[in-house]
Amino acid sequence: MKRSAPAPGKRPVARRIQRPARARRLQLELLDRGRPRTKAAFVRDVVRATLAFAERPDQPVSLLLTDDAEIAALHDVHLGDPTPTDVMSFELDGGAEIVVSVETARRIARSKGHAARAEIALYIVHGLLHTLGYDDVRARDRKRMRAAEREVLERLDLHVHEVDA
């Protein structure tokens, strides 16, 4: 089929091209004080996979990667417990604030024989799931939480030893 040129003085009609809906931009604020640093691209992948799993890709996330001393201080201020913990999470105005102790993650990963990055990912996933309505206090809820953690980590091809084993 031959296309005809537009008449003199007339512009050709623009054809509208349908493009797939653009993926929404991840809303992640990352502050990495852990040593050594965790690759930002890896952290983004973990956050993105968790939010996709929970079907909440637009949830804003603020993430602090730190050491045992800083998380212990935050744990004391917010929960009245001056001991270090692995992860803390807070839901604020529809967003998530997560604090992860990279120092604890490295220590636990070493003792369990798996990669530190997998343990860091587990803490990020766990904290985010808490802000997305998952809990682990009662046995039934804990089972649901662990299944969700495993699913997200499998999507990322990361492996950790059973958390409650």
How would you describe this structure to a colleague?
The protein is of the alpha/beta class and 165 residues long. It has one domain: Metalloproteases ("zincins"), catalytic domain (Collagenase (Catalytic Domain), 3-Layer(aba) Sandwich), CATH 3.40.390. 42% of the residues lie in helices and 15% in strands. The protein has helices at residues 40-53, 68-79, 102-112, 116-131, 139-155, and strands at 28-32, 61-66, 87-92, 95-101. A hairpin with a 2-residue loop joins strand 3 and strand 4 (95-101). The N and C termini lie far apart (69 Å). Residues 12-22 have low confidence and may be disordered.
SSE topology sketch:
Layout: E1 28-32, H1 40-53, E2 61-66, H2 68-79, E3 87-92, E4 95-101, H3 102-112, H4 116-131, H5 139-155
Helix pairs in contact: 1-4, 1-5, 3-4, 4-5
User: With helices defined by DSSP (H or I, 4 residues minimum), what is the helix count?
Assistant: 5
CATH superfamily assignment? Metalloproteases ("zincins"), catalytic domain
Strand order of the largest sheet: 1-2-4-3
Distance between the termini: 69 Å
* Helix/strand structural class: alpha/beta
Name some characteristics of this structure:
single chain; 4-stranded mixed sheet; alpha/beta; Collagenase (Catalytic Domain); 5 helices; 165 residues
